Records
---
Amino acid sequence: MMPRWLVPLVLLAIAAALPFGVSTYYVQFIGKAFIMGMLAMALNLAVGHGGMVSICHAAFFGLAGYVLALMSPGYDPASLVLTLPVAAAASGFVALVIGALALRTRGAYFIMVTLAFGEMMFFLFHDTDIAGGSDGTYVNAKPEIAIAGHRLLDLASPLAFYYVVLALLIATIVLLTVLLRSPFGHALAAARDNERRARSLGFPVYRIRLTAFAISGAIAGVAGYFATAQFGFVAPEMLGWHLSATVLVMVLIGGLRSVTGPLVGALVLIGLEEVLKASTDYWKLAEGLIVILIVLSMPNGVRQLWPLIFGATGDAATRPARVPAEANHV
Amino acid sequence: MSEVALSATALDKHFGGLRAVSGVSVDVHVGEVHAVIGPNGAGKSTLINLLSGELFANAGRIMLGDADITRLAPDRRARAGLGRAYQKTTIFPKFTVHENVRLAAQARSPHRLRMFGGVGSDAAVRARAAEAIARVGLAGREAVIAEALSHGEQRQLEIAMVLATDPRIVLLDEPLAGMGQAEARGIIALIASLKQGRAVLIVEHDMDAVFALADRLTVMHDGRVIASGPPQEVRMHPAVRAAYLGDHGADA
Amino acid sequence: MDLVTFGVQLLNAVQYGMVLFLVASGLTLVFGILGVINLAHGAFYMLGAYLAYWIATYTGSFALAMAGGVAIAFVVGLLLETVFIRRLYGRDHLAQVLLSFGLILSIDEAREILFGKDVHSVAPPAWLAGSFQLTDNLSYPVYRLAICAFCLVVAALIFLVVTRTRIGMIVRAGAENREMTRVLGIRFDVVNRYVFAVGIALAALGGIVVAPVSTVFPGMGDGMLILSFVVVVLGGIGSVAGAAIGALLIGLTDTFGKVFFPSVSSVLIYVLMAAVLLWRPNGILGRREV
């Protein structure tokens, strides 16, 4: 068994070496799975760490895609440096507005309100003429970084695209880890575990949650931006709640209390879908039943299996609900 | 006369047609334990919730020192110097003792919501947390997960959290509820020590504890204050004897 | 807008709101009593419409389609409660959301296997097939009026059952104080099973009733689910009267929104929801402090 600190380095080395071992199809497939993993990790900042079960993150994901599509000049590539921040900011801002309203409610209400506002975003693009209405629209050229006409980075190359996504994935993991270990992250976890106590200690619970929700929305936007760049296409379905719910499944599979769990969940679910699609016409039926089975049999996700493999870990912000040894003596 | 830490004037609170609290005024002084007593349904819990901001008064005014906090949300009141413990112990059950108290200390730190740097890196916060833990007698138990503590220890932990926010006034809602005699003695001594340099308001049913602790007593009945003053005066007050103390008062 | 057109739109709004109430009351009943948030509610609305189409096609009778569709939905509800839903009592909302999402995926695929994914229409019963001639070029279908009348009857029944009967009392007591009713010796497992089945049957009934005036298509359940949620958010969780108010508000907003502000009509109900959230976060008839 290798030492713990070595595990991420080995995984990173494998991910970095991957394009040299598999076909372009799989490089793109893994890239897509990484993007969904980013979305799932972003969502988990709200759901697992913030205790806010949101079903509208696809709206933030898709919105950033639309921003890229609308800012792309016809058949020429858009500037990555310009469009990515705008897309992330747009998603973060919409998350801020939706969160500001939804966080006036709790529990099941919050779920319903986020679902409804997410669908509002869907209908906004579905029922109006913005960017092709219900048909969606193409992004004909992948964004690039260029200085004075000289291309520094061109996402049209599958290899470059893969490494950019990998870099962003790592950046997301680092960002979320730092955030969750910070005073803010602990305050967020405290508000999740006992809202009343957090408030009576002096934590502005609403503001803390709203901030986390907006950050989560902005990261979801970054993921959506790259998903759109990869497909070269964006349609209202990308904002729909079926995607939001699917990403929630990834979060549940990966486990709610860790940073990278949802990434594992994304890889597992996307891999599973690929296998199911290849083996049966009725893959959605099978997927639905598998989702039900996971919910019923593994309330804490496949993460339940983790301690058996890696041993237990984590501090207060990420600690799963477990009974400590002392409890036996009371 | 000592300094008034918290002053509530003519508070009204009604739920629909029910007047839970009506025209209640109370002054809590620094260096004193002020006990609020009264039969069930007298409005004590409503009063403490009005003071801490969990309920808003329909009328009246609440001053914390020179600051008007009548319309402030609970978190703003906490940052202004008001700390509270609940009737049902309210802690972060999955966090360790140290993490619980550190969070409380963090809430009063200027960096309470900083988004970078480990949560343990603030030396001032760590020191205040350690001091509060030692003060309530939980030293050595820092690494225990809070939900594994005994009922009495959880009470101590909650008080440590309140202390770590460095409040000018502490509100305690039935701190002795559900506690054994030995445990209660420890908590009573702890509460008595809290009034050094700050004000304490306590709602409690245990009359022995109340008379042992209180420097001042307010008696509520049907949402109103029927008597207020030093315990010995209040004990003799005819309205109090009639409405509340009953036989207990007559025997005394 | 002249008076006749206004009247027609008003009728449309009310009819739409009534159907919405039918479906949303099932949702709010299941949530209020079982504490389960069921995303698959809309899927049963869709399933009801397809069942109506299927039975009506084979038997030629809309009445049979209605009775059969509701009965099938009821039985499916009983089965689902026994097999899946009861395992969700006391679980967190996330588990409920995801299990019901799994149900949606399965139901959607089952529908595709059984009925395909074509868009269908269903003929209203012959005796309700005509229309009233209002002016020279404006008529109003009898069936739409029949929907209003039918939904009114069902709504009245729901109110009667919830407020007047022993079962309704149990149901209300259960929503507010589970412990107490358990002490009284009420068999919660049985009550729960039937409440869930009735909730599902109401969703299916909604789908059956609208089948003749709208088209039957695979995605119809999603839209209805979202609208039902908005109804519940507007009215207040667990409040049947609130659901009625919310449903009518949405019917009016949507219908007149399409007339007056056609370009933004689909967003209007969400603006309405945002306004209610700012005004009363717990819904119009929701309890203030939860």
---
Amino acid sequence: MMKETKIEELFANYQPDLGDSNAYMDNLSKKLAAVEYIKQYHDEEVRRSRRTMVAMFVSGTVTGFCSILLLLLFPQVMQPIVAWFANLSPNLPPMLPKMLFILCLCFISLCITSFVGRISENPPHEVARS
Amino acid sequence: MTREEFIALISSEQESLRRFLLALCGGDRMEAEDIAQEAMVKAYIASNRFVERHKFSTWLFTIAYNTFLDHKRLARNRETDLDEATFMADSSSADQRFEYQELYAAIDTLPLKEKTAILLFYVSGYDIKEIAKITDSTKIAVKKQLSRGRDKLREILK
């Protein structure tokens, strides 16, 4: 029991000088303000990348859907371009001009999607503000 | 939780936390202050994840204890004599260390888990359930650590 008291005494007197508490808290709140600034910047970046991802997904889906619709509903649109490709070289395999046309459509869709992504990443009003 | 709310909560706990860390670091004030600051910044970053039904101080001490463990792990990886030299040059730290030499010497003989349990119990006044939460152990394990720690301290204080 006496030994137990001795242990308690050992810790009861433990009151080390920790310096000025107010100065410590001032220093800490300055650090937290800096952290908050970084946190806000990080949160904004996350929001921005999420917005871009959604915009690119939507525009990719829409342009892809429109391309397929164009090919299925208006095959005559393809005819002059396919004929032009075929005229370039008569030795081309018959499927190649059609494939090239579809590839062109894919490329245009990709361009539109990346343009929409870029716009949503840096909206004109935010660029003007910065 | 806003910054003001967090600071209000922290200001009532910071002294107790720093005292605990100072003892855990064996009186190395610079290391203890570094860990305390890092733990508080970590707590602030994670403050959105703090669940109100938990006790704030227990949550804060858990973060501080884990930060201490991270520091120890890092220090083991790049152990140099330079830190010791810096420590010796800091006279205020040396004075502090001297003042509580007996306590630090006694505590330093204990393994980390026993040391932590003893300090949380005697210096910070936590009960066994809270110590178990902070150190991520079971209540039985904490009871054993406390008992073993007390036995060793008794031997030293003879």
